[in-house]
Design brief:
Blueprint (H helix, E strand, L loop, with lengths): L5 H5 L7 H21 L1 H4 L7 H21 L9 H21 L8 E2 L4 E2 L1 H18 L6 H23 L3 H18 L3 H24 L2 H6 L7 H17 L4 H7 L5 H11 L25 H34 L3 H25 L17 H26 L12 E3 L2 E3 L5
Antiparallel strand pairs: 1-2, 3-4
Length: 427
Protein backbone atom coordinates (compact mmCIF):
# COMPACT_ATOMS: atom_id res chain seq x y z
CA UNK A 1 0.00 0.00 0.00
CA UNK A 2 1.44 3.36 -1.04
CA UNK A 3 1.77 5.71 1.91
CA UNK A 4 4.02 8.26 0.20
CA UNK A 5 1.27 10.92 0.27
CA UNK A 6 1.18 10.77 4.06
CA UNK A 7 4.76 11.98 4.50
CA UNK A 8 4.22 15.70 3.73
CA UNK A 9 1.25 15.83 6.15
CA UNK A 10 3.37 14.48 9.01
CA UNK A 11 6.06 17.06 8.29
CA UNK A 12 3.78 20.09 8.29
CA UNK A 13 3.69 20.58 12.05
CA UNK A 14 7.31 21.73 12.38
CA UNK A 15 8.69 22.94 9.07
CA UNK A 16 11.98 24.63 8.38
CA UNK A 17 15.34 23.84 9.91
CA UNK A 18 14.81 20.93 12.33
CA UNK A 19 18.11 21.62 14.12
CA UNK A 20 16.92 25.13 15.02
CA UNK A 21 13.67 23.67 16.33
CA UNK A 22 15.65 21.22 18.46
CA UNK A 23 17.86 24.01 19.87
CA UNK A 24 14.76 26.08 20.67
CA UNK A 25 13.28 23.24 22.73
CA UNK A 26 16.60 22.73 24.53
CA UNK A 27 16.74 26.43 25.45
CA UNK A 28 13.09 26.41 26.58
CA UNK A 29 13.70 23.36 28.80
CA UNK A 30 16.75 24.98 30.41
CA UNK A 31 14.80 28.22 30.79
CA UNK A 32 11.88 26.61 32.63
CA UNK A 33 14.20 24.81 35.05
CA UNK A 34 16.51 27.73 35.77
CA UNK A 35 13.91 30.51 35.89
CA UNK A 36 11.90 28.45 38.38
CA UNK A 37 15.02 28.01 40.48
CA UNK A 38 16.27 31.60 40.15
CA UNK A 39 12.92 33.26 40.94
CA UNK A 40 13.04 32.68 44.70
CA UNK A 41 14.03 36.28 45.37
CA UNK A 42 11.02 37.51 43.37
CA UNK A 43 8.56 35.50 45.46
CA UNK A 44 9.98 35.92 48.96
CA UNK A 45 7.32 37.64 51.04
CA UNK A 46 5.41 38.82 47.95
CA UNK A 47 3.51 36.05 46.20
CA UNK A 48 3.24 32.34 45.58
CA UNK A 49 6.49 30.70 44.53
CA UNK A 50 4.65 29.44 41.43
CA UNK A 51 3.70 32.91 40.15
CA UNK A 52 6.95 33.75 38.29
CA UNK A 53 7.28 30.36 36.63
CA UNK A 54 3.61 30.33 35.60
CA UNK A 55 4.03 33.77 34.07
CA UNK A 56 7.23 32.70 32.30
CA UNK A 57 5.62 29.47 31.05
CA UNK A 58 2.73 31.47 29.59
CA UNK A 59 5.18 33.81 27.83
CA UNK A 60 7.13 30.86 26.42
CA UNK A 61 3.91 29.19 25.30
CA UNK A 62 2.69 32.32 23.51
CA UNK A 63 6.16 32.81 22.04
CA UNK A 64 6.29 29.26 20.67
CA UNK A 65 2.80 29.63 19.21
CA UNK A 66 3.80 32.89 17.53
CA UNK A 67 7.01 31.29 16.31
CA UNK A 68 5.05 28.44 14.74
CA UNK A 69 2.54 30.78 13.05
CA UNK A 70 5.24 33.10 11.70
CA UNK A 71 7.31 30.25 10.30
CA UNK A 72 4.38 29.20 8.10
CA UNK A 73 4.41 32.52 6.21
CA UNK A 74 6.44 33.37 3.14
CA UNK A 75 9.32 35.68 4.05
CA UNK A 76 8.04 38.40 1.70
CA UNK A 77 5.11 38.91 4.06
CA UNK A 78 7.63 39.82 6.77
CA UNK A 79 8.10 43.16 5.00
CA UNK A 80 4.76 44.21 6.45
CA UNK A 81 5.97 43.78 10.06
CA UNK A 82 8.32 46.81 10.30
CA UNK A 83 5.62 49.05 8.83
CA UNK A 84 3.81 48.45 12.12
CA UNK A 85 6.71 47.83 14.52
CA UNK A 86 8.83 50.90 13.73
CA UNK A 87 6.14 53.63 14.11
CA UNK A 88 4.70 52.02 17.25
CA UNK A 89 8.13 51.64 18.85
CA UNK A 90 9.08 55.25 18.02
CA UNK A 91 5.89 56.57 19.61
CA UNK A 92 6.29 54.40 22.74
CA UNK A 93 9.99 55.26 23.07
CA UNK A 94 9.04 58.93 22.80
CA UNK A 95 6.52 58.46 25.61
CA UNK A 96 9.19 56.81 27.77
CA UNK A 97 11.62 59.66 27.05
CA UNK A 98 9.05 62.22 28.21
CA UNK A 99 8.37 60.19 31.35
CA UNK A 100 12.08 59.92 32.09
CA UNK A 101 12.54 63.69 31.87
CA UNK A 102 9.79 64.14 34.46
CA UNK A 103 11.02 61.46 36.85
CA UNK A 104 14.16 60.67 38.80
CA UNK A 105 15.34 57.89 36.49
CA UNK A 106 14.94 56.21 33.12
CA UNK A 107 12.01 53.92 32.40
CA UNK A 108 12.21 50.84 30.19
CA UNK A 109 8.69 49.41 30.31
CA UNK A 110 5.16 50.55 29.62
CA UNK A 111 2.43 48.86 31.63
CA UNK A 112 -0.09 47.40 29.21
CA UNK A 113 -2.33 46.07 31.99
CA UNK A 114 -1.76 42.35 31.54
CA UNK A 115 1.99 42.63 30.88
CA UNK A 116 4.84 45.15 30.68
CA UNK A 117 6.01 46.08 27.18
CA UNK A 118 9.61 47.11 26.48
CA UNK A 119 9.49 49.31 23.34
CA UNK A 120 13.22 49.01 22.65
CA UNK A 121 12.70 45.30 21.87
CA UNK A 122 10.13 46.22 19.22
CA UNK A 123 12.31 48.99 17.85
CA UNK A 124 15.50 47.02 17.32
CA UNK A 125 13.75 44.19 15.46
CA UNK A 126 11.69 46.60 13.35
CA UNK A 127 14.80 48.56 12.34
CA UNK A 128 16.70 45.39 11.38
CA UNK A 129 13.81 44.20 9.21
CA UNK A 130 13.42 47.57 7.48
CA UNK A 131 17.16 47.90 6.86
CA UNK A 132 17.21 44.39 5.36
CA UNK A 133 14.47 45.46 2.96
CA UNK A 134 16.31 48.64 1.96
CA UNK A 135 19.61 46.83 1.44
CA UNK A 136 17.92 44.23 -0.75
CA UNK A 137 16.91 47.03 -3.16
CA UNK A 138 20.36 48.68 -3.15
CA UNK A 139 22.03 49.06 -6.55
CA UNK A 140 25.70 48.90 -5.62
CA UNK A 141 26.98 50.60 -8.78
CA UNK A 142 24.40 53.41 -8.62
CA UNK A 143 25.65 56.44 -6.67
CA UNK A 144 22.13 57.79 -6.10
CA UNK A 145 20.93 54.43 -4.77
CA UNK A 146 24.01 54.22 -2.54
CA UNK A 147 23.48 57.70 -1.13
CA UNK A 148 19.73 57.31 -0.56
CA UNK A 149 20.06 53.91 1.11
CA UNK A 150 22.98 55.00 3.30
CA UNK A 151 21.25 58.10 4.62
CA UNK A 152 17.90 56.36 5.12
CA UNK A 153 19.59 53.69 7.23
CA UNK A 154 21.64 56.27 9.12
CA UNK A 155 18.65 58.49 9.94
CA UNK A 156 16.40 55.61 10.97
CA UNK A 157 19.00 53.79 13.06
CA UNK A 158 20.37 56.98 14.59
CA UNK A 159 16.92 58.25 15.50
CA UNK A 160 15.78 55.00 17.11
CA UNK A 161 19.10 54.58 18.95
CA UNK A 162 18.83 58.12 20.33
CA UNK A 163 15.37 57.28 21.67
CA UNK A 164 16.62 54.00 23.16
CA UNK A 165 19.90 55.24 24.65
CA UNK A 166 18.30 57.08 27.57
CA UNK A 167 16.60 53.95 28.85
CA UNK A 168 18.97 51.24 27.66
CA UNK A 169 22.44 52.16 26.38
CA UNK A 170 23.50 48.56 25.73
CA UNK A 171 20.49 47.92 23.47
CA UNK A 172 21.25 51.07 21.45
CA UNK A 173 24.88 50.00 21.01
CA UNK A 174 23.82 46.44 20.14
CA UNK A 175 21.40 47.67 17.46
CA UNK A 176 23.98 50.06 16.02
CA UNK A 177 26.58 47.27 15.78
CA UNK A 178 24.19 44.91 14.01
CA UNK A 179 23.12 47.57 11.48
CA UNK A 180 26.75 48.56 10.90
CA UNK A 181 27.69 44.97 9.98
CA UNK A 182 24.57 44.65 7.82
CA UNK A 183 25.62 47.76 5.87
CA UNK A 184 29.04 46.22 5.21
CA UNK A 185 27.55 42.90 4.09
CA UNK A 186 24.80 44.66 2.15
CA UNK A 187 27.15 46.44 -0.22
CA UNK A 188 27.30 50.01 1.11
CA UNK A 189 30.37 51.67 -0.44
CA UNK A 190 33.55 51.32 1.58
CA UNK A 191 34.30 55.04 1.57
CA UNK A 192 31.01 55.62 3.36
CA UNK A 193 31.68 52.76 5.77
CA UNK A 194 35.14 54.11 6.60
CA UNK A 195 33.82 57.65 7.06
CA UNK A 196 31.08 56.37 9.36
CA UNK A 197 33.63 54.29 11.28
CA UNK A 198 35.75 57.37 11.88
CA UNK A 199 32.81 59.42 13.11
CA UNK A 200 31.58 56.63 15.42
CA UNK A 201 35.09 56.03 16.80
CA UNK A 202 35.58 59.75 17.51
CA UNK A 203 32.19 60.10 19.20
CA UNK A 204 32.77 56.91 21.20
CA UNK A 205 36.16 58.07 22.48
CA UNK A 206 34.78 61.50 23.45
CA UNK A 207 31.80 59.93 25.24
CA UNK A 208 34.02 57.43 27.07
CA UNK A 209 36.46 60.11 28.22
CA UNK A 210 33.55 62.30 29.26
CA UNK A 211 32.09 59.55 31.46
CA UNK A 212 35.47 58.73 32.97
CA UNK A 213 36.65 62.29 33.70
CA UNK A 214 33.48 64.22 34.58
CA UNK A 215 32.49 63.99 38.29
CA UNK A 216 29.21 62.16 39.03
CA UNK A 217 27.70 65.27 40.63
CA UNK A 218 28.21 67.23 37.41
CA UNK A 219 26.53 64.47 35.41
CA UNK A 220 23.52 64.55 37.72
CA UNK A 221 23.19 68.33 37.53
CA UNK A 222 23.55 68.64 33.74
CA UNK A 223 20.07 68.76 32.25
CA UNK A 224 20.86 67.47 28.74
CA UNK A 225 22.72 64.38 30.01
CA UNK A 226 20.59 61.21 30.39
CA UNK A 227 19.80 60.44 34.01
CA UNK A 228 21.35 56.99 33.69
CA UNK A 229 24.74 58.49 32.80
CA UNK A 230 25.91 58.08 36.39
CA UNK A 231 25.02 54.38 36.19
CA UNK A 232 27.00 54.01 32.95
CA UNK A 233 29.92 55.84 34.56
CA UNK A 234 29.90 53.59 37.63
CA UNK A 235 29.84 50.43 35.51
CA UNK A 236 32.68 51.61 33.27
CA UNK A 237 34.84 52.63 36.23
CA UNK A 238 34.10 49.37 38.07
CA UNK A 239 35.06 47.36 35.01
CA UNK A 240 38.24 49.40 34.47
CA UNK A 241 39.28 48.88 38.08
CA UNK A 242 38.48 45.16 38.11
CA UNK A 243 41.95 44.37 36.75
CA UNK A 244 43.59 46.05 39.74
CA UNK A 245 41.42 44.03 42.10
CA UNK A 246 43.00 40.84 40.78
CA UNK A 247 46.05 41.46 42.96
CA UNK A 248 43.98 41.44 46.15
CA UNK A 249 43.64 38.41 48.36
CA UNK A 250 40.17 37.06 49.17
CA UNK A 251 39.97 38.92 52.49
CA UNK A 252 40.87 42.30 50.97
CA UNK A 253 38.43 41.80 48.09
CA UNK A 254 35.58 40.83 50.44
CA UNK A 255 36.22 43.83 52.67
CA UNK A 256 37.00 46.58 50.15
CA UNK A 257 35.33 45.65 46.85
CA UNK A 258 32.51 43.15 47.32
CA UNK A 259 30.14 45.47 49.28
CA UNK A 260 30.12 47.96 46.39
CA UNK A 261 29.65 45.31 43.67
CA UNK A 262 27.04 42.86 45.04
CA UNK A 263 25.78 41.52 41.69
CA UNK A 264 29.20 40.89 40.17
CA UNK A 265 30.47 39.45 43.46
CA UNK A 266 27.64 36.94 43.88
CA UNK A 267 27.81 35.99 40.19
CA UNK A 268 31.51 35.23 40.68
CA UNK A 269 30.73 33.20 43.80
CA UNK A 270 28.05 31.24 41.92
CA UNK A 271 30.50 30.33 39.17
CA UNK A 272 33.46 29.66 41.47
CA UNK A 273 31.42 27.40 43.76
CA UNK A 274 30.29 25.14 40.92
CA UNK A 275 32.15 22.16 39.48
CA UNK A 276 31.90 20.07 36.34
CA UNK A 277 28.30 19.00 36.98
CA UNK A 278 27.22 21.77 39.38
CA UNK A 279 25.11 21.63 42.51
CA UNK A 280 22.04 20.32 40.69
CA UNK A 281 18.84 22.07 39.55
CA UNK A 282 17.19 24.04 42.37
CA UNK A 283 20.25 23.96 44.64
CA UNK A 284 21.69 27.41 43.95
CA UNK A 285 22.83 29.40 46.96
CA UNK A 286 23.48 32.71 45.20
CA UNK A 287 20.03 33.09 43.62
CA UNK A 288 18.81 34.65 46.88
CA UNK A 289 21.49 37.35 46.70
CA UNK A 290 21.57 38.16 42.99
CA UNK A 291 19.04 40.91 42.29
CA UNK A 292 18.57 39.86 38.65
CA UNK A 293 19.16 36.13 39.01
CA UNK A 294 16.31 35.18 36.67
CA UNK A 295 17.28 37.64 33.93
CA UNK A 296 20.63 39.44 33.63
CA UNK A 297 22.66 36.90 35.64
CA UNK A 298 20.81 33.69 34.87
CA UNK A 299 23.91 32.29 33.12
CA UNK A 300 25.75 32.42 36.45
CA UNK A 301 22.90 30.43 38.05
CA UNK A 302 23.03 27.93 35.17
CA UNK A 303 26.74 27.34 35.77
CA UNK A 304 26.23 27.09 39.55
CA UNK A 305 23.46 24.48 39.23
CA UNK A 306 24.44 22.64 36.03
CA UNK A 307 28.19 23.14 36.32
CA UNK A 308 30.68 23.93 33.61
CA UNK A 309 29.01 21.23 31.52
CA UNK A 310 25.73 23.17 31.58
CA UNK A 311 27.48 26.43 30.78
CA UNK A 312 29.28 24.89 27.82
CA UNK A 313 26.03 23.26 26.64
CA UNK A 314 24.23 26.62 26.55
CA UNK A 315 27.17 28.19 24.70
CA UNK A 316 27.17 25.34 22.16
CA UNK A 317 23.43 25.69 21.58
CA UNK A 318 23.84 29.34 20.61
CA UNK A 319 26.84 28.52 18.43
CA UNK A 320 24.80 25.85 16.62
CA UNK A 321 21.98 28.35 16.13
CA UNK A 322 24.41 30.86 14.60
CA UNK A 323 25.87 28.18 12.33
CA UNK A 324 22.40 27.17 11.11
CA UNK A 325 21.44 30.81 10.52
CA UNK A 326 24.60 31.29 8.47
CA UNK A 327 23.70 28.20 6.46
CA UNK A 328 20.20 29.59 5.83
CA UNK A 329 21.61 32.94 4.67
CA UNK A 330 24.03 31.32 2.22
CA UNK A 331 21.24 29.20 0.71
CA UNK A 332 19.03 32.21 -0.06
CA UNK A 333 18.68 33.11 -3.74
CA UNK A 334 17.24 36.54 -2.94
CA UNK A 335 18.92 39.36 -1.04
CA UNK A 336 16.11 40.23 1.36
CA UNK A 337 15.87 36.89 3.23
CA UNK A 338 19.66 36.62 3.31
CA UNK A 339 20.11 40.07 4.89
CA UNK A 340 17.19 39.49 7.25
CA UNK A 341 18.61 36.16 8.41
CA UNK A 342 22.06 37.67 8.94
CA UNK A 343 20.66 40.64 10.87
CA UNK A 344 18.44 38.57 13.16
CA UNK A 345 21.17 35.98 13.67
CA UNK A 346 23.72 38.64 14.64
CA UNK A 347 21.23 40.22 17.04
CA UNK A 348 20.56 36.95 18.88
CA UNK A 349 24.22 35.90 18.84
CA UNK A 350 25.59 39.22 20.12
CA UNK A 351 22.92 39.46 22.80
CA UNK A 352 23.72 35.96 24.07
CA UNK A 353 27.47 36.68 23.98
CA UNK A 354 27.04 39.93 25.97
CA UNK A 355 24.84 38.30 28.62
CA UNK A 356 27.21 35.39 29.14
CA UNK A 357 30.25 37.69 29.14
CA UNK A 358 28.69 39.86 31.84
CA UNK A 359 27.95 36.82 34.01
CA UNK A 360 31.57 35.60 33.89
CA UNK A 361 33.06 39.07 34.36
CA UNK A 362 34.36 39.68 30.82
CA UNK A 363 32.05 42.62 30.12
CA UNK A 364 30.52 45.51 32.11
CA UNK A 365 27.00 44.96 33.45
CA UNK A 366 24.55 45.81 30.66
CA UNK A 367 21.12 44.38 31.42
CA UNK A 368 20.86 42.32 28.23
CA UNK A 369 18.76 39.14 28.72
CA UNK A 370 19.88 35.71 27.58
CA UNK A 371 17.70 34.99 24.48
CA UNK A 372 14.88 32.51 25.13
CA UNK A 373 16.24 31.68 28.62
CA UNK A 374 16.01 34.83 30.73
CA UNK A 375 12.69 35.79 32.30
CA UNK A 376 10.99 38.70 30.55
CA UNK A 377 7.80 38.82 28.51
CA UNK A 378 8.77 41.23 25.72
CA UNK A 379 12.21 39.66 25.30
CA UNK A 380 10.79 36.13 25.06
CA UNK A 381 8.10 37.15 22.57
CA UNK A 382 10.45 39.17 20.36
CA UNK A 383 13.11 36.45 20.40
CA UNK A 384 10.45 33.91 19.44
CA UNK A 385 9.40 36.17 16.57
CA UNK A 386 12.99 36.42 15.34
CA UNK A 387 13.46 32.66 15.39
CA UNK A 388 10.06 32.21 13.74
CA UNK A 389 11.20 34.37 10.82
CA UNK A 390 14.46 32.42 10.53
CA UNK A 391 12.48 29.20 10.44
CA UNK A 392 10.10 30.76 7.92
CA UNK A 393 12.96 31.59 5.58
CA UNK A 394 14.29 28.05 5.95
CA UNK A 395 10.80 26.67 5.37
CA UNK A 396 10.42 28.58 2.10
CA UNK A 397 13.84 27.43 0.91
CA UNK A 398 12.93 23.81 1.58
CA UNK A 399 9.54 24.16 -0.11
CA UNK A 400 11.09 25.77 -3.18
CA UNK A 401 13.57 22.91 -3.39
CA UNK A 402 10.63 20.48 -3.32
CA UNK A 403 8.63 22.61 -5.78
CA UNK A 404 5.93 23.44 -3.24
CA UNK A 405 4.40 26.78 -2.24
CA UNK A 406 4.45 28.52 1.14
CA UNK A 407 1.48 30.31 2.71
CA UNK A 408 1.00 33.80 1.32
CA UNK A 409 2.91 33.36 -1.94
CA UNK A 410 0.95 32.43 -5.06
CA UNK A 411 1.83 35.21 -7.51
CA UNK A 412 4.64 36.38 -5.25
CA UNK A 413 6.77 33.30 -5.90
CA UNK A 414 9.77 34.39 -8.02
CA UNK A 415 10.12 33.19 -11.54
CA UNK A 416 13.39 33.11 -13.46
CA UNK A 417 13.36 35.16 -16.66
CA UNK A 418 16.57 35.23 -18.65
CA UNK A 419 18.53 34.19 -15.60
CA UNK A 420 17.05 36.95 -13.36
CA UNK A 421 14.49 36.60 -10.61
CA UNK A 422 11.30 38.55 -11.13
CA UNK A 423 8.59 39.08 -8.57
CA UNK A 424 6.22 41.71 -7.18
CA UNK A 425 7.65 42.90 -3.89
CA UNK A 426 5.48 43.79 -0.98
CA UNK A 427 6.05 47.47 -0.28
Amino acid sequence: MDTGNDTPKRKQLLNGDRVIWAMVFVLCAISLIEVFSASSRLTFGKSSFLTPIISHTVHLGIGLLGMWLIHLLHYRLYKVFPVVLVPISIVLLGVLSIRSMNSSGAERWIDMGFFQLQPSELGKIGVIMLVASWLSKLKQDDELSQSNTFWKILILTGGVCLLIVGENLSTAILLACVIFVMMILGGIAWRRILALTGVIAALGIVALLFLILVPPQTLRETSFIPKRATTWQARILDFRESGANGNMNAYEYAKLVAPDKPQETHANIAIASSNILGKGPGNSDERDYLQEASCDFIYAIIIEELGMAGGVLVLLVYMILLFRVGRIATRCKEKYPAYLAMGLGMLLGLQAFINMSVAVGLFPVTGQPLPLISKGGTSVLMTSGCIGMLLGISNVLEKEERGEEAIGTNADIPSVINGNESFDEIQ
